[in-house]
Each structure stands twice: as structure tokens, then as C-alpha cells.
Amino acid sequence: MGRGWRIPREIFKRAAETGFLGIGYPEEYGGSGGDIFLKVVACEEIMRSGSGGLAASLGSLDIGLPPILALGTEEQKDKFVRPVLKGEKVAALGITEPNAGSDVANIQTKAVRDGDYYIVNGSKMFITSGYYADQVTCAVRTGGEGAAGISLLVIESDSPGYSVSSKLKKMGWWASDTAQIFFNDCRVPAANLLGEEGQGFYGIMKNFQMERLSLALMANITAQMALEESIKYSKERKAFNKPLTGFQVTRHKIAEMATLVEASREFIYRVAAKMDAGVTQIKEVSMAKNFACMVSDKVTYDAVQLHGGYGYMREYPVERFFRDNRLLSIGGGTTEIMNEIISKMIL
What we know:
With about 350 residues, the protein is α+β, with helices and mostly antiparallel strands. It has two domains: about 10-205, Beta Barrel (Butyryl-CoA Dehydrogenase, subunit A, domain 2); about 205-345, Butyryl-CoA Dehydrogenase, subunit A, domain 3, CATH 1.20.140. About 45% of the residues lie in helices and about 15% in strands. The strands form three sheets. Strands 1-4-5-8 form a four-stranded mixed beta sheet. It has a four-stranded antiparallel beta sheet with strand order 2-3-7-6, with no helix packed on it. Strands 9-10 form a two-stranded antiparallel sheet. β2 (about 110-115) and β3 form a beta hairpin. The chain starts with 9 loop residues before the first helix and ends with a helix. The relative contact order is 0.12.
């Protein structure tokens, strides 16, 4: 993407002008409205750019804004939601820490009330859009241990005591800036508290279904694009005086890849339909994410294998799909955490 492996900030403005950023958000706050399936289409089409990093950057508001909409006052929504949907500000979510990832209830970043401010100390790790974020919806500990002690603060990047690391160098998603954020006696207005103290864990968990659906969609479309590139290459590439599609082993591999991609997509769409109807899908969306990532792991691997040495070259899209794919079974809850959720709900 150039510019030091990042997308230019003006892309947020352009995306807002087209209404893309506002899809799924209330019109009264500058959103474009629409149901879950409009969001599904938007996710799939932005992934068609071939850049998971671009999709992640533009999608960072989808994890940073929902807690504000769920817990925030009208004044907070006007201040922190509207400018983001206009593309004027970049929003991020700050949950993961150097020593706490999927174990959300164990976060240690501390916020102590001091008159009209909170004094925040700690750090957040692997924050998508963290380097360029203007505001971070941040999980902090205002009470005792466990989930009940967690609150959410919107921390603005110009707050005293707020600093950011250099952009982290990742295997994939190069266009997405990822950073560690530090809070050193960071002064945050108490007016930036979302809801009441102790409501943070609820605010975080409320959006996990949608986040995991989005990651499942990203995995599925990654696999779909890898399949399409494999079909294209296999028709063009010749070996022993005939195209690769002339070999049964190639045809069967493509058939298996296509079957897995189709099954994954149908599963995701079914879960999305139930979510759109207001049916809780905690177990099912966890299954869909795991299955979609398993499929994408196999299909991107097979796509590189079908391309042979060319699949290892950066000139070919499958090399990028293979790298970008690896994060999907980690972000938004690892495969192992998804299995814990699934097993608890079954048992």
C-alpha cells in the first residue's frame, strides 16, 4: 500500500463520504443504517481489495464504537461516534494487554478517580489502528479483581500521559497500523466513562458476536479468493504439455477446496440470519469462526501448493492471502477460546 505499509488517513474520509463507514449505524449519529446482511456484503466487498489490512483498518470502528452506542450518553455518542462516522477521527478498541488477551477479566490497566478525572496507568498491546487512533475505547480496572472491576473509558490520544509505540511489524495485514499504547499517569475526564463503573465487561462482551461474525466472513472470503486464484492459475499453467486442470489430482483438490468454502459460507450466512432475527448465537458464531478459519487455513495452504514456487512469490495474491489469513484464528478470540465457549455451552 506504500507510505510505510499503511493506508492514508484520507481513505477514512472517502469511505465516510460514500456511506461505507456508516453501514449498520443509526442515522441519527451520522450512520447509513442497514441490517446485518448489508454489513456482510460490505465486509465481503472490502476484502475483495485483496488487503486484509485495509479491511481491518476501516473496520476498527466496528469494535471501537459499539460499546459507546451500548453504554454512552447522548452527549458521548455525539462527541465520539459522529466524527468517526464522518471519517474525521479514527477509533480503536483497547482491550488486550502484554499479559492479558483472551482473558479479558484479568486486565490490569488501572484507572483511579481523582476529582473530575481518572488517572490511568498501564498499557494496551496489539491495538488495531492504535498508531493513528484519535480515541480508544479502553478497558480499565476501576474496582477489584475479576470482571466486576472493569470499566470502559474513551481515552483521546491528545490526553496528557498518552503515548504510542512505533508501528508493530507483523507477518500480515501490513496496511493496518498496529501498536502498543502506554498510559503514564494519563489524565482522562471522568465524563468519558461509559455507563457506570463496573459495566465495562458487559460493554465488551455485547459486541463479540458481531466481531466474530466479521472475522468468519473475512476468513471465508480469503478462502474464496484463494480458490479463484487457484482455478485461474490451474487453467493457465501447463505441465507435461497440458494445463494443471488436465490432472485428476488438481481437479479433485479444487473440488475439495470449493466444497469447504461453500459449506463455510452457508454456515456463516445461517448464523448471520439468526443474529439479524435477534436470536443469540454465541455458540454458533464461535463454531462458524472456527470452521471458517479451519477452511481458510487449508484452502490458502493448498492454493500456495498448487501455485508451486510462484505461490511463494509476493507477485502472486495467494502469498498474501496465506500470510493475512494466519491472524484470523487468533484475533477476536483464539480457536482455543472459541472451543472453550462451545464446550461450556454444550456441556
